[in-house]
Known about the structure:
It comes from Streptomyces toxytricini. The chain has 85 residues and is mostly helical. It contains three helices and no strands. The protein starts with 20 loop residues before the first helix and ends with a helix.
Amino acid sequence: MATARTPMPVKKKALPAGLPREWYESHNRRLKAMRLAISLLDSGTYDARRATNRKIRTMAVRTGIHRPSNTTCKLVRAFIVSNAG
Protein backbone atom coordinates (compact mmCIF):
# COMPACT_ATOMS: atom_id res chain seq x y z
CA MET A 1 0.00 0.00 0.00
CA ALA A 2 1.46 3.33 -1.07
CA THR A 3 1.38 6.26 1.29
CA ALA A 4 1.29 9.89 0.28
CA ARG A 5 4.51 11.73 0.94
CA THR A 6 4.30 15.25 2.22
CA PRO A 7 6.87 17.62 0.78
CA MET A 8 9.46 19.11 3.06
CA PRO A 9 8.71 22.72 4.00
CA VAL A 10 10.69 25.36 2.16
CA LYS A 11 13.42 26.90 4.24
CA LYS A 12 12.70 30.60 4.73
CA LYS A 13 15.30 33.15 3.80
CA ALA A 14 15.63 36.63 5.22
CA LEU A 15 14.41 39.46 3.02
CA PRO A 16 17.12 41.60 1.48
CA ALA A 17 18.08 44.59 3.58
CA GLY A 18 18.21 48.17 2.42
CA LEU A 19 15.25 48.26 0.06
CA PRO A 20 12.59 50.98 0.23
CA ARG A 21 9.68 50.36 2.60
CA GLU A 22 7.26 50.24 -0.36
CA TRP A 23 9.08 47.16 -1.68
CA TYR A 24 8.53 45.26 1.58
CA GLU A 25 4.89 46.33 1.72
CA SER A 26 4.17 45.22 -1.84
CA HIS A 27 6.10 41.98 -1.32
CA ASN A 28 4.06 41.09 1.77
CA ARG A 29 0.83 42.13 0.00
CA ARG A 30 1.63 39.78 -2.90
CA LEU A 31 2.34 36.91 -0.49
CA LYS A 32 -0.93 37.50 1.35
CA ALA A 33 -2.88 37.73 -1.90
CA MET A 34 -1.30 34.52 -3.17
CA ARG A 35 -2.23 32.62 0.01
CA LEU A 36 -5.80 33.88 -0.24
CA ALA A 37 -6.04 33.06 -3.95
CA ILE A 38 -4.83 29.52 -3.31
CA SER A 39 -7.37 29.09 -0.51
CA LEU A 40 -10.17 30.35 -2.74
CA LEU A 41 -9.14 28.08 -5.60
CA ASP A 42 -8.98 25.11 -3.22
CA SER A 43 -12.49 25.92 -2.01
CA GLY A 44 -13.87 25.96 -5.58
CA THR A 45 -13.89 29.66 -6.46
CA TYR A 46 -12.35 29.56 -9.94
CA ASP A 47 -13.97 32.70 -11.37
CA ALA A 48 -12.59 36.09 -10.33
CA ARG A 49 -16.04 37.68 -10.72
CA ARG A 50 -17.34 35.39 -7.97
CA ALA A 51 -14.46 36.32 -5.65
CA THR A 52 -16.06 39.33 -4.03
CA ASN A 53 -14.35 41.36 -1.33
CA ARG A 54 -16.72 39.78 1.19
CA LYS A 55 -15.83 36.25 0.06
CA ILE A 56 -12.10 37.02 0.13
CA ARG A 57 -12.33 38.54 3.61
CA THR A 58 -14.37 35.58 4.87
CA MET A 59 -11.67 33.24 3.57
CA ALA A 60 -9.06 35.36 5.36
CA VAL A 61 -10.91 34.90 8.65
CA ARG A 62 -11.19 31.14 8.06
CA THR A 63 -7.48 30.78 7.32
CA GLY A 64 -6.29 33.09 10.09
CA ILE A 65 -5.02 35.87 7.83
CA HIS A 66 -5.51 39.52 8.78
CA ARG A 67 -8.36 41.32 7.00
CA PRO A 68 -7.18 42.26 3.50
CA SER A 69 -7.53 45.76 2.09
CA ASN A 70 -9.40 46.58 -1.11
CA THR A 71 -6.06 46.65 -2.95
CA THR A 72 -5.19 43.17 -1.72
CA CYS A 73 -8.64 41.88 -2.72
CA LYS A 74 -8.06 43.27 -6.21
CA LEU A 75 -4.70 41.51 -6.35
CA VAL A 76 -6.33 38.22 -5.26
CA ARG A 77 -8.74 38.47 -8.21
CA ALA A 78 -5.82 39.18 -10.54
CA PHE A 79 -4.09 36.00 -9.32
CA ILE A 80 -7.26 33.98 -9.92
CA VAL A 81 -7.57 35.39 -13.46
CA SER A 82 -3.94 34.61 -14.22
CA ASN A 83 -4.48 31.04 -12.97
CA ALA A 84 -7.45 30.52 -15.30
CA GLY A 85 -5.48 31.31 -18.47
